[in-house]
Each structure stands twice: as structure tokens, then as C-alpha cells.
Predict the 3D structure of the following.
Amino acid sequence: MKKFIKVISIIIVICFVFVIFITRDGEVITPIGEGVVSLDIGDFEAFPLPDYALNMINSDYKSYFVEVEPGIKVHVLDVGKGLPVFLMHGNPTSGFLYRKVVDNLPLDKVRVIMPTSVGLGFSSKVPASQHTLDNHIRWINETLNQLQITEVVYAGQDWGGPIGMGALALSPDVLKGAVILNTGFNAPVVGEFILEVVFSIFERLGGVQGDPTSWSEDVVEIYGRPVYESGNAKAPLALMRMVTDGPDHPSTPALRMIERYVEELDIPAEIVWGMKDPILAKTLPIMKDNFPEAPVTETSAGHFLQEEVPTEIAEALVRVINKVTNK
């Protein structure tokens, strides 16, 4: 009996420590760059990418920080010249999610801007309690403001939908065209993912792909390594908790604001959807209601369709860009 009690006591202590570990709020971690990146509008703090990230893109990319609040920096990938194209990723990825799409865009005619949400990739990390939809919208809007973006074609997926569209809603005259990927703008949206906190979420996301092999080891590394090596890996779970489960959820007011903005849009738009997405495939009819005139490309991709069907996404972007520039 004494041995049994001892074992139970050890289990209780381990469980208590584990709960404390996964529920602690975390702290602000501010990345430090080196040198400057000079843009037409001024200088920004350069961020030299580690080799494993450099290997995913070419030398034409600029990598820099935009400090949106003291100590809170948004990492930006920037490539090309011309009409700004703003590409917003979701959870738990980063701006690198669009690298294959960029390979198929006319970079002599467009400038592609790929911010990474705070908490993910090489951007600053913040306490879990600071991960709110309002904060993320404000941080990305401030990024666009500091880059002096006055017109843009936009694409967004997963949380890059509400965060990106929400940022544009705060500057309502900027958006000129859009390509909508697997995401949602309506409240309440789909229920929360189940996260297996014992294991790396990054390694398990091949299961939401149409082709699981598209979630390769180098893909796991580019999204997961900057988060885990930062010392604050709170963002993936905190972003999941931002998903609404009813009208009283803290994200609901911001989503209602985004809904109203989307309802008033009169822009060229297309929808590209991954029909093997176990999370959002079935919500395509809702997105069609948001953009009833938009052509729809249904693909065999899963949730992170940028990894599987980048050509289809790029082709949709080019069609929208042509409509915007030919007006």
C-alpha cells in the first residue's frame, strides 16, 4: 500500500508540474537583427536568416523587422518590384508558407510582402494572454502602415484570413483585389483543433494535407524550429484558443467587424480551396456567400494548400492582379 501511495504521489506531482508547464503565460522575447535593409521609404532592421531558412528561398528576398510596438517585431519577407501583394499565413506557419507561390509570380511587376504573425516564425514571441485577434490585427495593420502600403492585392489562409482582412479593414481603402484560400471570416467559425501538447504540432500537420508528403522534414523545420528555439512556444496553442466557439468568445467582436467589411467589398476576387482540408473544406459554401461573384478553383489539396497547389494560387493572383492593373 505504501508503494502504491508513493507511485500515486509521484504521478500527481508530475501531472501538476506538467499542467504548470503548459499553462504558464510565457514572456516577451524580442529578436535582434543585424544591419539594415534600405527600402524606398526608409531603413528597417535587417534579420540575417539562418541557413535552414535561407535554403528555402533565393537571394532576391529581403528579410527585416518592423517594430510595431516597443519590443514587438514582425518579421517580413519582401521580394519583387511593383504592385504590392500582401500574403498572410495562418497557424502555426510563417511567411515562408508562400515561397512556392512567389516562384510563380511576375516579380518584375509585383512586390510580394509576407509578414509573419507575432509569436510564430522569426517574429517576436509574447505571453499567451497577448494572443488576441484584436492584437494580431493591430500588429499587422501597423506593419502595413509603416511600410506605407496604399494599395494592395491580398491573399490569406487559416488565421491569415481574419488577421489579414482585419488589418485591411482598419485601412479600408487599401484593398484592391483578393484571393481567398481556406479560411473563415464569419463568427462563429469552426471549433478548436485538438492539440497534442506532448508532441510537436508541427510534425503532425501532414495529417491535414491532401498529400501528407508535402509536409516534409524541411517544412517542419522552417515552421517549428524558430518557435521552439525561441524559448516561448505559446503561440500555436494560444492562436487555437482564439477560434470562436460562440457569441461570447473574445474574438467574436473583431470577426463581426471583419464580416461587415467583407460585405461591403466591391473588388476583383477569386477563391482557391483545398477540398481535402479536414477542417475547412466543408465551409466553402459560406465563403462563396461572402464573394458570390468570385470564380472558384477547387483543388485536391488539404489545409496548407500553399505547399500543395502553389501554381493554382499564383494563377488566381495573377488574374486578380491583371484586373486591378487594367482598370
